[in-house]
Design goal:
Elements lengths: L1 E4 L9 E5 L9 H10 L1 H7 L10 E5 L7 E5 L11 H14 L8 E4 L11 H19 L4 E6 L2 H11 L1
Parallel strand pairs: 1-6, 2-4, 2-5, 5-6
Antiparallel strand pairs: 3-4
């Protein structure tokens, strides 16, 4: 596992993860950027896959991106931490990782799910992401490269400190 600062739509991994909304049809932030770069065929492909419940994941081709796959997951909206937000966020990462082996994915890039408009505290979200990925990799013993792609320096520094 490693962290980089950059734009997830520029990744050349087998898959990237989209922090989507339940309708899977694009929006703001990471979701909007992925849909713009992938092209209109992505929205058409996503239409019958919706709705995607919070914590679950759906997979689509990469369309206009350099990746083979886009895994869409719906993170929880932060409501103070008393509405299963931590468990739902962990499920996002775990459910995305469960899609890797059946689709031949050997490298995956995650954004900081739920930390933008959904308001999840950045450090807590990073701790949950790292723990969920570590647990998955330990349990399934898979050879999978996991990247955390942070758009801003603050989020990057949080992940970097936690990975050390």
């Amino acid at each position: 596992m490693r962290v980089i600062q950059g734009d997830i739509t520029d990744m050349n991994t087998d898959a990237i993860v989209n922090a989507a909304n339940s309708g899977l049809l694009g929006g703001g932030g990471v979701d909007g950027a992925i849909h713009r770069r992938a092209g209109p065929a992505l929205a058409e492909y996503c239409r019958p896959l919706a709705p995607c419940p919070t914590g679950q994941a759906r997979i689509t081709p990469g369309f206009g991106l350099a990746v083979r796959w886009i895994i869409h997951t719906v993170g929880p909206v932060w409501r103070g931490g008393r509405h299963d937000e931590a468990a739902l966020l962990a499920a996002c990462y775990t459910n995305c990782l469960h899609l890797c082996a059946p689709h031949g994915i050997r490298s995956i890039a995650f954004p900081a799910i739920s930390t933008g408009a959904y308001g999840f505290p950045k450090r807590q979200a990073a701790e949950i992401a790292l723990q969920a990925c570590r647990s998955f990799l330990a349990r399934f013993g898979t050879e999978l490269e996991v990247l955390f792609v942070c758009f801003d320096r603050t989020q990057h520094d949080i992940y970097a400190a936690l990975l050390d």
